[in-house]
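Example 455, ligand pyridoxal-5'-phosphate.
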Amino acid sequence: MTVENAYRSLPSVDRLLADDRVRTAGDGAAPEVLTGLVRETLESVRSAIARGEPAPTYDQIVEAVLHHTRAVLRPSLWPVINATGVIIHTNLGRAPLSREAIAAMEAVSHGYSNLEFDLDEGERGSRHVHLESLLRQITGAEAAIAVNNNASAVLLALSALAGEREVIVSRGQAVEIGGGFRIPDVMRQSGTRLVEVGTTNRTYLRDYEQAITEETAAILRVHASNFRIIGFTESVPPADLARLAHERGRLMLDDLGSGCLLDTTRFGLAPEPTVQDSLAAGTDLAFFSGDKLLGGPQAGIVAGRRELVDRLKRHPLARAVRMDKASIAGLTATLAHYLKGEALEKVPVWRMIAMPLKEVERRARRWARAIGPRARVVDGRSMVGGGSLPEESLPTKLIAIDGESGWVTQLARRLRTGDPPVVGRIEKDALLLDPRTLGREEGPALVAAVKAALD
Ligand SMILES: *Cc1c(COP(=O)(O)O)cnc(C)c1O
């Protein structure tokens, strides 16, 4: 067939629109939207023909229209069952929220709220008031502000407080946190000049001391969230950095990353620096995420000295990186769990960390039995993940499904592309599913998904 003839053999837009399969595929989309999708499909069929491909059959074109329509109209972001055993999994949306946090987000999303309205005075208020007193109570800080995420918290603080001046960072801390968040790049964006001191593995107080010049605005400490330097190492504790900074009239800033408010050593984990400890050590401003170990919605929190926080609130970037009302509501409800001393039971990431091995084992055995003879229970480790406690893990019990490696890869793929998608991990010719990272009601869905994938 010549290209001309191939073009002529294609169905018209109207004929496709009249096809029952195409009409129902629109699922309520406006007619002109469906027409556009049919046109786009025919367009790509024509380019394929122009490239020398054979003309598709009528049914193949209908299939292509349906495929394109689904791809455009169906939401692409949806819930996933996390059976990886990584509690704070950045690629899977970080912290799952408590019931109370979700309810609070829903409540302010239905209609209007007093987001920036002072109900007592009947006049304009500030969105910052909803979080500040809770954050002060919990962290012991004089003042606090929450913004879009921790990357923007650091960017805002450096822009507002260090301007075109110098900020001293240990060479071992001028790091990439993941997802392209690199301390040197953020500093460049803010206009400040990075002064690296020490070596990758060892930095002493005198290194900082010698680097302080007229131009120095602050010393910045960055928590090694996602890696660990071990062996012949030396770093300076925050209290010493704070003392030095203050003797010289400079600021001590601490990028803590994970926003840990509780003692991790109770669960057999290494100590993760807490916000309270950093501030008690004399840090002027501490920065941390809302959706890592804090266990709330995406947010970046700055806690510390009143006068500095006020300068951040007034900076033009504060508007550009502000939080939305639903996240403020969710973070407020999450923080309330800490104030009430119920975080271990209510905040999902802490419930998962604190889940006794016996309970994980009970889940693993029950679900493995329901899956059938292919599933067995083995020992394993769960990770905290998400830029906290690198290399640290918790003992767990895994559901293992063994097979030859190609088959296991296929099984993992079927689970990922199922409904709901299930993400596990593969190790030595076995698919491993960790019950620790599942929500309270996700067990039956996991069992059904695995049984369907095995069939
Ligand atoms: C995770 C992390 C960040 C980035 O936080 P986001 O909330 O993802 O923007 C910055 N610094 C450190 C030390 C981190 O661990």
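Summary: The radius of gyration is 27 Å.
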